[in-house]
Batch of 4 targets.
Target 1
Amino acid sequence: MSAQQPPSADRRAFLKGAGVAAVALPVAAISQPSPAQTPPAAAAIAAQNGPVGFQSLSLEEAAFTEALVDHMWPKDELTASGAELGIAAFIDRQLAGADGQGDRHYLQGPFRKGKPKHGDQLPLTPEQYFKAGVAATDAACRMKFSKPFDKLAPAERESFLQDLAAVRVQGGSIQLGTWFNALVCPLFVQGAFADPIYGGNRDKAGWKLIGYPGLPAVYGQDVERYRGRAHPRSATPQSIQDLS
């Protein structure tokens, strides 16, 4: 983060950039959503969606994941927190689904130790890999701060995640930098900007933030026309459920 910008401004700029890369159509990001695009307050979203049950994550893993996404997408005057937007629920659903269970993944040996740029060479499904990383990350937090990640203060979380992303945290057999950058961060971005039918991006808040009109996917011709500003239809984006 820069010294000139507050953390919330820096992080919002990052989320907008990540969202533009994540959505299916290359509609450009905007500098700030208009009042008509501002998503509902956090309380309204939480009341609308009700409590979330987890299919894959244990209570401890869910606490870690919710604390992580809340820090990476903090609540402010424009959106609810990451957990309230369903990002943790999205991650849980993906881990419990076919891909998380290893469908179409090569899981037969030999699994030799490679170079850091090769990533972890492990006979694990994405679900097993995520859970192993959570356990190793929490262990590293307990060693450094004498408490798990979800109990850290915001400044401690920020410092720890900066070290994690920069591959400065040791995780035993798990390369935690690779785990965080190659598995956790993509899942976070997908949960923030995927179609709400998959559990995240509740009330299409991620789409409204970046000015994305949603479906149907027929806006390719508008990329140049609305580059640098919101699409006219992004105040009421359409999801798969809206068109079903």
Target 2
Amino acid sequence: MDIVIIGSGNAAAVLGRKFIAAGHDIIQIYSRNAAAATELAYEWNSESTNYKSTINKNADVYLIAVTDDALEDVTDQLKLPGKVIAHTAASVPKEILKNVSEHYGVFYPLQSLRKDMTTLPDVPIFFDGNDAKTKNMLEQLAHSISAGQVVEAGDDARLKLHVAAVVISNFVNHLYSLAEDYCRKEGLDFKQLLPLIEETAGRLKNTSPKQAQTGPAIRHDSETIQKHLELLKAHPQLKNIYVLLTESIQQAT
């Protein structure tokens, strides 16, 4: 397929590389960040523009990969009649594109994407469209770049998935950050915890998180919990989260 990518950030860069690897042609990149668009265009032997009026009108698919709060501005005055256009946001309804084209949808990559990734990750894609043409084209595009899940998901389902994704990715990473800060202040090496992190995550491939739960909270080991809380007096933010999560784990058992 011939593709125009609108955006030049993390999602745009990684998805663009996936498209190229799958044999698609990125015929143009549009971005308000002219330097970033030019850099990606050079990498993909494509062209770039930072003017909506000069967006190429000959592509098969137009993919808007920008932040949620930038979507309204990007789509303002954008007209691509007869073309298939989709955005990549989980929490924004597809109808934000209804004035851009008769064929609009969503192409949501459920993955943490960074422009500086040295290898292309597996990217589950959740797609939606307002008509059969849009759904079929986006599904084909998704299967071409994803070895994992390709699932049709409406606005409500995607929003619920996004909540779960924030919990298991953003919130968990914040806990890693707090633990790293704790280790630094206590003279410990956070990297010594990496084998445990990898084992805990790997266990979930064959076991549900509830069954995999271990630790003093699920054992109701009050003596160990009190020792931990005593240590955490010097780390009030981590102590508050420790108490909250301990209570949550115990209530779930």
Target 3
Amino acid sequence: MKKDINNEMYFWQFLSRYEVEIPKIQRDYAQGRREKSELRRSFLKNILQALKGENQLKMDFVYGSEEGRKLAPLDGQQRLTTLWLLHWYIALKSGHLSEENAEVRATLRNFSYSTRVSSREFCKQLSNVVISKDIFNVKDYITQQTWFYSSWKQDPTIQSMLRMLSGTYIKGENDSEVKAMDGIEQVFCDEDYDVLWEKLTNSDCPIRFYYLDLLGLKLTDDLYIKMNARGKPLSSFENFKADLIGYLSEKEKESDQWKVFNSVNNGFPIKLDTSWAMLFWNANKQYWIKRQQALEQNGDSTAVEFHIDSPYFAFFNRIFFNLMVSAKKKLMTEKDDDEDSSYLYKADSIDNTNNVVFNYLYGRGENQMKDNAIEYSSFDYYCYMHEDDDLENRYIPEEAFRYITSILDNVASCTNEDLTRCFPARHKNHPFNFIPVYESNKEYETIVPFSQTDRVLFFSICKYFEQGRFEEASFKQWMRVVWNIVDAVDIDTIAAMVGRMRRIEKISSDTHKIYQYLNQCSSFTKNGQLEEERIKAKEILEGTHCEDVFVEAENLPYFKGSIRFLYQNDNGNVDWENFDLKLSNSRNVFTDHLINSTDASHMKKLFSYMNADDFNNCLWWHYRVFNNSVKSWRYFLLNEKLYGAIHNFLLDKPVPSYNVPENENESGNWIFYLSHGTLLDFVMKKIPSSWIRWYHDHAAIYPSGTGVFLNAGQRDRFLTSTEGVTIQEDFLAGGTETRKFLWGTNIPFEFSGYPFIWDYHNQICVSENQNAIKVLINTNGQDSSAIINELQDYISRIQSLSLVEN
């Protein structure tokens, strides 16, 4: 027979042509299970309506593997079994199982099960025996025959077949048993069986399906194994797939433009089970092979059931999440003039707890968000589009299915490993799988979950495959740009994640020629990183610096893809003259060793180029930067208010000379103490995550409980330089020759051997066991000699009282 992909057939024709045997690895007959009562009734009624009406009932695809006349169905076993039972029953009731109809019985014998000997023998006996068409309860009649073994009642396939024939009983009033009317015998009761038989066995039969010989299509053994290894219960993906195809079928009735998605040759129904399925099978087969090997090594002969439903389902959930995030309003208004407002869902509100589509696709569960644990419940969650505020009438637009088709068709040109191999060197070990895979070293089956960064990468790679197949050179360039944008900010919120996706979408019109596309773009005035990528692309194509130089710079430990400070001058303008020198100096400063170091020399040098405005704009109430973390240095390097300081620092210009500030309590002068002396050395070692803010009327390097007051000069000088005053060394926080700083808000000290505390209100208190018990002096407005006199007076009074008591 010619292997024709357009091979539309009806069941009697199919059974007359082939000897059909359900393979051993296939699941038991599930449509006859007790819990499938409503499914049976609905399915059988649809068949009856088609037989009695004029419309055909299409049952999608049946896939098989042929050897001569023998055929093993790899998918469609449930539908074929139901059709066989229906034909057997209508043959019985129309008198075609009589002795003179040997040909009908012979054709029925062309269907069998190899899952169990009992199932095979049961099908054989039903096809051989001569039964009167006048019997009433088929199940009771069959189970009472001498050829029906009592042990067959334990065979789930036989029990399901009997239930399909005669239905089930359900509990009625007063616990009485009532027929559920869900079997062939009930649904087809009192029909004209002769007419039905004629319709079922003639070429105009309205019950039809498409048959595909997979081996004839030259598909691999892997797919054969995969399709024979279906899990027994219907998985979330199987239910999703059925509803997806059903959605497309309904849309085809509305408009011919949807026909392409239901194409027998190249539509969703065939691809979901063939070429697209192979992507997930190839990515996951080693997982199952290892699982099987592990069992065998432990002496366990259990056959592992290979399947791919979980990764397949996760992929579609992630695809639809992309579609939701990037959905634009259909009708734009004058108010929709900025980037975010043009989207159907705003970035800062997309994760609203009332957004059922987001909650489902993101995997929002109780106290967790995991997209690898989504359980399918309704296709409504995939209908993400709506008009204005009409949330009730959500739908999936036609372009979404073109998007999905392009991605799945084009990703076949590569593997997960091909993709990650093109990541920048700094991310070469980032664990990412575009095609989801099962997580190894787990006792239970679960796929590797996605982080927020992974979602942005997935979105970006989808944009690439939407436009074409994998080409290593172009994909490497695309991922270089993508990772630079991803690394530009911490993706630690949903809004940040969505924002990155939309930044990337903004430049995704030609992902396979990203440099050429960026080069012809206008300036990105609202986004520094996009503008940097545009400028670098222009320099690569037209300038003196090649791509390799940028790649090396971007992968330096502290730069993470952002290097605009290397080509910006002291006004922030593009100037390539000093790029090479700045890069050379950066290699010596920003090393791996610096990251965990408390060496303050580089930061003090940077601060030495700052002025009062720089301090107020970038340090005062701004950021926790008194450390050598990548995040802290990037804050300075990318700060648009520090062009001059950063430019001079990277050029390694001589440190400017400073005079000791005349008024050390002015904020503009505090930068002197951070860039000179040992204060910053102390802060980096003791309170590296601190920042500068007001606390109790003091400018404090915060956290204040163990912080340093910058404007407590009177206190600090008195306690560190007054004769007769002693403090513990633990309270010293470094400084210059002329200005020592103290660490803490309340500083204990001794004067002439007596304990006191200088508190944060600038009060000197009498101390007992290092606790303030009484305010003695308000130091505001007093000089050191006055404070000393009051302390001496207090000590004299204490001494006099002591003499009197003695």
Target 4
Amino acid sequence: MLECVINISEGRQLDAIEKIRGQIGHDILDIHSDFHHHRSVFTLANPIAARQLSQLCADQFDLRKHVGVHPRIGIIDVVPFVPLENSTIEDAVRARNEFAEYAANELKIPSFVYGPERDLPEIRKRAFVDLMPDFGPTEPHPTAGAICVGARQILVAYNIWLKNATIDDGRRIAREIRSPQVRTLGLQLGNEIQVSMNLIRPDEVGPDIVFDQVAKRADIARAELVGLAPARVLANIQKSRWDELDLSKEKTIEWCLATRNRAIQNLN
């Protein structure tokens, strides 16, 4: 089985986001929207739903009107395919390439691929500068931009807000805790400062570890899990810390998949 975690450059039209949820249905396991990032993260249980979601978003959202703190190159900004049980990274690469071909042929949107060949930060730096799309047109789509389509292992997206901090504090802390296991950005969101992270190897460096690393450097206002985490990550953390870290069994991939499967069975 493959999970697909699509990052859409739209986090403010919440009525439109909810309408999309209703159109796609049970294959959406989770949606996380953020006003300041101007971004929504859709966790999908079916690669076919990725095409439906992309079509809906390309039809109604416009990158030219987008202003947000998160880096992006397109409306359908990031489309990673992630192997879960009984699937491999080779399966994810195959799904990635099939999706990129679909985006090129049906949506006329160029795609840059990441995974074994290169990582996502490289695309962010090089797209349309000295790196041309792997699929589709050589120029960005006029309203949808381009897509980063990936094949990767499970990661955990995680944010920590700081108390009484400046943007310089946020950027310094982001630099200090950055590592091969953790990608970081220090961001200003309104009047608040956030350290935004992707935990690339969450079995090695999980939410508890980065939380404690940040806490050594600043007072923490709150933490936030973006999307879902695998149950094994929670199993490595004392349950007494789950609330502090914004973790729960209901926010695991396994819990949401089981809920989806029961809902589908009840329809049959």
